[in-house]
Amino acid sequence: MIRALIAEKRILVCAGPGGVGKTTTAAALAALAARLGKKTLVCTIDPAPRLADALGVGGLGPDPRPVPAAACRTLGIPEAGDRLSAVRLDTARAFGRLVDEQVRDPAMRRRITENVIYRQITTSLTGSQEYAATLALYELAREKTYDLIVLDTPPTANALDFLDAPKRIAAAVSSPAIKWFARPTGGGLSFQRLRMGGAMALRRVGKLVGSTFIEDLAAFLVDFQDVLGGFLTRAQSVDALLRSPETAFLLVLAPVTAAVDEALYFHGRLQAARVPVAGFVANRVQSTPGLTESGPLAEAIRATGVLKDLPDGAVGDAAARLAALGQTFQAVAGAERRALERLAGRAPGTPVIRIPLLDHDADNLAELRVVGDSLAAG
Q1: Which of 54, 166, 190, 219 has the highest count of CB atoms within 10 angstroms of its CB?
Q2: pTM for this entry
Q3: Phi, psi at residue 92, to the nearest 5°?
Q4: Is 11:148 a contact under the CB 8 Å cutoff?
Q5: Tell me: the pLDDT tens digits for 210-224?
Q6: CA 97, 99, 105, 110 torsion: positive or negative?
Q7: Is there a contact between 247 and 276 (Cβ–Cβ < 8 Å)?
Q8: What beta strand segments (E) does the chain contain?
Q9: Are 260 and 340 in contact, with CB atoms under 8 Å apart?
């Protein structure tokens, strides 16, 4: 299933809440695609260095950086040029490039990007980080430099923020109120509208935060009217890209009840929005222990060459302790299996790929390759 996605798609989006192994999944998926012959770029907007650490590339920047040859060899990637690259998407740069495209006057571009309202919108507004990620993804896809782009979406309490960001921004910039304030009045500035009777609320805000805020808002709206159309058009283009047949979403989750419930909710919303959901990736799935009874465990201990001369009391005590531990693991594995069976039953037709729990976090290249192998095996 994953091999087919790598062969057929241009964009794979790893979505889900934070802390479920999304970054590891994205990195392993990209490394697998490169191993299968695709020129691949893996992207993250997370400022934490986890993706860079996972791929051994050091600090990532806003420009794609090839994964070193030694790391590629460990990942099983043939040395055939820049087969695998990584990049950290830059929020400010993504918005800045869009402003540069829409505004030809350098002085006006500078006024917009230096305006305090613009900086707040592009850095602090809910959804701005997610929208910047989609902007950068759109630019990379439009350049067609890579056969496949794998996106590690921003860590968020609500995984739908990433999907909803283009619509939210489009609704904001096309708001009748914004257009009303941004429209010049008789050759004067839109600032005059803030003085009119209909802007009583803004005047009251001005008393609380100072007249500078109102002036900054007015100046921003006047200059920004040249960008409104571009923001709206780009938001629509990004939305279309996320829903196109060349894009597929993988929903990454932990194999526990709460995570399954969230994944099912997200799956339903994606289907309702006609977004292609390729499958679920359940990370860190506990394997079922082989022996859970003290008798067979004692026999296994005695069959081990270096332990065959242990006293019967020591063997019995060790077997009892291991049996208790094995039964605990068995209960955990059973609960995870039931949770994933419920996931498959509630989302028929959507594959569930299980990534086994490793001895420790996949923080090195060898274990990243193991995760990739599990993805390939499906």
Answers
A1: 54
A2: 0.78
A3: -60, -40
A4: yes
A5: 445 555 655 666 666
A6: negative
A7: yes
A8: 11-15, 40-44, 65-66, 84-88, 148-152, 247-253, 277-285, 352-356
A9: yes
